[in-house]
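[step 3/7] fold_predict: job queued, chain A
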Amino acid sequence: MEENRLLMYMHAGSGNHGCEAIVNSVCHMVKEKVTLLSYYGEEDEKYSLKDLCHIVSERRFEEHKLAHVLYYGYRKITGDQESFIHYRYGDVMKGKTAPLAISIGGDNYCYDNMLSDLRLANLAFNRKGVKTVLLGCSIEPELLRREDIVADLMRYHTIIARESITYEALKGMVNGQTGEIGGRKEMPQILCYPDPAFTLQKKEVPLPEGFAEGNTVGINVSPMIQDNEKESGITMECYEALIQYIIENTGFQIALIPHVVWARNDDRKPIHILYVKFKDTGRVVEIGDGTCEELKGYISRCRLFVGARTHATIAAYSSCVPTLVVGYSVKARGIARDLFGQEEHYVLPVQSLKHKDDLVKEFQWLLSREKEIREKLEKKMPDYRNLALETGKEVDRLWEEFTQQPRI
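[step 4/7] structure written:
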């Protein structure tokens, strides 16, 4: 592995087009070519990242069962928990590594099953003398009550929150610390810039029959929000009621648009159920898989958008398409609050769904204020995109500082 590479890690693969959108956008921002450590490098080769960065696939234990057993035994005997990270990242962890490593933030810290890997990777890089940056993150404020999470976050040199709820919580975390925390005497730098994907380029491909540009409601639904619903089956009931309402009360077409296509978490499954139910109306179009840029191209040509996946809604917001988010965590609330000054009506928490017409009511509110919301976005978005570009400038500044190789 070459030295002095700008590393990105904790990237789960481009089958999640939100992950792809973050990496794509950052690669366009920074001067240095990125080396991307990817859990599913083959996905990145398939979509938009192939020519944007140097892709290094992690070694996955599920493909090397004997190695998993051996490393588990070694960790049991030695207590070296980081050995799993050294195995996964392979040559990247051998010898002198890069001076700067960027953890793809997103909402990784919102998932319990990722917290251990995040901590161990951060710790492993720190022990190698690598400065780490947590980029574009959303973190539930309640999580910062946990000492192990605080100790982990304090090891980062810089944390860039993507919305103000996370930013204020992180600032409070730092201000409440004294002495040496997480192995560092100095406090991490806390910044707040919009998600890099607000700057994502779009790619317009030919529209399928039935997609009326400027007169289509884009709809995205995901298994993730279904997993977070309080009443079993209510999410799909609400989406079905919404589509029925649009068909009966408007002249809009409907485009069902996926944004994550992993076999274990595939938007296309609930989308296809909705398509089959309404296809005979001639009003519904089922969009297939594509790169993050192509999916943004579809979303940008919608009149209105109702979405569950954060980066599908970011694609809509950044294209000035009035958007209703069916959310489940701090990221949706924080982004809406920063854009509109409130989350009420702009975000419908999936946990609050109780009646099948709940989504219809919020869509009616969105439709009644369509012009006003579009004008707000058109006014806000130029400065908001420029602010998102500050992430790239900060990464460039840190790179120059740590490599002492100023770029012209």
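[step 5/7] annotate
Residues 6-199+386-403 form a domain with the Rossmann fold fold (CATH 3.40.50).
The chain is about 45% helix and 15% strand.
exit 0
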